[in-house]
Amino acid sequence: MKKQYLLAPGPTPVPPRVLQAMSLPIIHHRAPAYKEVFEDVREGLKYLFQTQQEVLLFAASGTGAMEGAVANLFSAGDKVITVNGGKFGERWGQITNTFGLEVITVDVPWGQAVEPRRIADLLAENDDVRGVFIQASETSTGVAHPVREIAELVREREDTIIVVDAITGVGVFALPLDAWGLDVVVTGSQKALMLPPGLAFAALSEKAWKFNATSTLPRYYFDFAKELKNALKGQNAYTPAVSLVIGLREVLAMIREEGLENVFARHERLATATRAGVQALGLDLYAPDAPSNAVTAVCVPAGVDGQDVVKTLRTTYGVTIAGGQDQAKGKIIRLAHLGYVDDLDVITGLGALEMALMDLGYDLNERSAVRAAQMILRRK
User: Fold this and answer.
1) pTM here?
2) What is the mean pLDDT of the chain?
3) Quick check: 2 pLDDT over 90?
4) Model pLDDT for residues 208-237, shown as the tens digit of each residue
5) Rounded to whole angstroms, how far apart are CA atoms 262 and 260?
6) Which CATH architecture has domain 5-11+259-377?
7) Contact between 166 and 191 (Cβ < 8 Å)
8) What values do phi and psi take at 228, rounded to 5?
9) Residue 218: is the preceding peptide bond cis (ω within 30°)?
10) Under a CB-based contact definition with an 8 Å cutoff, are residues 287 and 114 in contact?
11) CB of 290 within 8 A of CB of 116?
12) How many CA atoms lie within 13 A of 256 on its CB side?
């Protein structure tokens, strides 16, 4: 017998009480029973996103909300800035180009966060920029970008909004939409929201809704104004993923029970322990200066292929993590610690990593990731 452990940055483990809720008999999405669920979800999402605004919900992956943010807020030819520091920053560029926007790309070396000064300089040089697109947590590199600082650059510009992909940020660390003046925040269900894939979310500021009123790009399913109109009636515009929404109500209840600040503190603690563990093995962090609390990207030792580490962990020890993508393929591994994860999940992942590295010929020299992590996790 071999147990399976899911420590990838999405999908992430689903709590048993959420699975139980989703296993209940299906209900009709236009019936009063669904409206009751949806109203609970509406309020829970406002708490999670730290906003008084409505949070829109779609049956889609997080990329659907990313595309919707472009289609609903801009017009062909609008000038925008996209931060490209990994696979998902690259995606912002691909989506904005697809819709015919004029894109200024800020290329950032993988493993590094963008410097706010670069955005400030571009905004000063281009007073017609309509949007700044950025990741809160670049999942492919384990980097946390300085969203708050960049939001401050945009806040006073009446004709510019900041659009944040927080797919591995929401529910991991603070991203208060109202307090920070964030204009658009999007996420997906299969990350810190502890659900299977299938739901996408978008929260908009009042300023962003003004952009929606003048946008001329085509949309149909991802029509934010239509979805808002229906949400205010306690409904979705189109058939929702009913079972996932029922599970979401349970997830949001769990988050309230733990308390949002405690959720953030737990993620920070688990991330700190993971980073301490891998560094104790003599491994370098891929993002040492701006690590995300969602996922730790680790440089594999010389002579070891990161893809082999991922395969050995999965096939020999039943532990699923993620490898590197594109230019980082084979060079890094990514250990996630977001969502339904606790101390012993971190210990399990690090212990399995030790064994996999030894299997692949890496000499630990009596070093212990587990011991280093335990020293962090025992501090209550």
Assistant:
1) 0.97
2) 98
3) no
4) 999 999 999 999 999 999 999 999 999 999
5) 5
6) Alpha-Beta Complex (3.90)
7) no
8) -60, -45
9) no
10) no
11) no
12) 13
Provide the residue ranges of all domains of the chain, joining segments of one domain with +: 5-11+259-377, 16-258
Q: What pLDDT digit, counting tens, does each position of 259-307 carry? A: 999 999 999 999 999 999 999 999 999 999 999 999 999 999 999 999 9
Cα–Cα distance measured from residue 359 to residue 309, given in angstroms and rounded to the nearest whole number: 9
Burial 275-310 (b: 16+ CB within 10 A, else e): bbbbbbbebebbbeebbbbbbbbbbbbeebebebbb
CB 277 within 8 Å of CB 370: yes
Interatomic CA distance for residues 356 and 352, integer angstroms:
6
| Sheet of strand 332-336, all strands in order from the earlier edge strand to the far edge | 295-299, 332-336, 322-323
Token pair of 136, please?
């809160």
The CATH fold assigned to 16-258 is: Aspartate Aminotransferase; domain 2 (3.40.640)
DSSP of 125-146, one letter per residue? H-TTEEEEEEESEETTTTEE--
Spatial contact of 199 and 244, defined as CB atoms under 8 Å apart:
yes
CB under 8 Å to 226, separation ≥6 — which residues? 237
Cβ neighbour number for residue 178 with a 10 Å cutoff: 15
Q: How far apart are CA 174 and CA 268, in angstroms?
A: 11
Q: How far apart are CA 231 and CA 208, in angstroms?
A: 17
How far is the C-alpha of 185 from the C-alpha of 63, rounded, in Å? 12
